[in-house]
Here is the input.
Amino acid sequence: MTNAHVPHWRAWLAVAAGGLAGTELRYGLGLAFPETVGAMPWTTLGINVTGSFVLAALTTVWMARPQTAFWLRAGLAPGFLGSFTTFSAVVFSSDQLSRAGEHPVWMAYLGLSLLLGLGGAAGGWRTGRLLTDRLQGDRAGTAP
Here is the structure.
């Protein structure tokens, strides 16, 4: 007996591969742009805002194009972007700053994470809408 709601093995493999790739990219960016102890964690902030933007853009496109393969959506969204952007990194950085007595920095960091994350998602949604409109225009033969 099979459960129709259990994802196919390709989805599981795509999430694992995407998770590995997202983690490695995040780690590499952390090495390339190290964060200074007691300072604003700009690298983590940039990673999370970028991920919010990309996830919103992809989700918007996928909503308009539901025929996108499930394994691809699973590999990119919860796999790659889920490991690339992590709430735990925000909490860890905030905790480290708080323990170091950098209260204005961690409070500003949390505020910026919220505002810029929402802004990134809004920009991603808008970009996804523009891409969707463009793709639909290309299919209809109306694009220049």
Observations:
- The chain has five helices and no strands.
- Residues 103-140 form the longest helix (38 residues).
- Helices lie at 9-32, 42-64, 70-84, 87-99, 103-140.
